[in-house]
User: What shape does this take?
Amino acid sequence: MVADSATIPVAGPSRVQSVSPGVALLLAGDTLPGWVLADLRTDHAGEVGAVCIYQGVLRFARDPALRAFAEHHLATEQKHLRLIAAWLPLEEHSRLLPLWRLAGFLTGALPSLFGPRAVYTTIEAVETFVDHHYEEQVRALTSQPALSDLRQTLLDCQADEVAHRNEAAAARGPTQSAWVLRIWCATVGAGSKAAVALIRHI
Assistant: This one.
């Protein structure tokens, strides 16, 4: 568990920029506040889960369009995982990553057994949550000019997630989802929220 007042050496790449004359941004070897590390821990675990979601889809999906969708988004999530991992020291990773991998895989695998519409609806729900999650962090970092590089990384990831959500929504179509699927998506959203609260500490 990391207290919000703790600081840990930055694991990300060296950053040599300036906010204004005489004000330097963090360089590698400087420190990140504990609350930022806690946020990054949730991002890292989330991206691990996202990779596993698409792996779960690809394990069972047979529809060519859905498989192309999953393969494309899997590559994007793998890129996000590398970006976030570059900022988060290994010792700060969630100790429950095996659980998040399993949860992610099941989140992709189970709806894929019921067809593309179930998968697209699930992805739309997941990415809606992720969009809001990143937005909260981006806003918090607005008051931290020394972390502008990190804020931009999160903005870039958020933009990709919004694109994923919109693509899934378009593929799902305008018809209202069945009540079972709505309950499933509500469960996914509630589970994601609970996971974030836990990952901040473990």
In short: The CA atoms of residues 27 and 42 lie 23 Å apart. Strands lie at 7-9, 18-20, 23-24, 31-33. The helical segments are 34-60, 64-87, 97-112, 116-141, 148-172, 179-199. The radius of gyration is 18 Å.
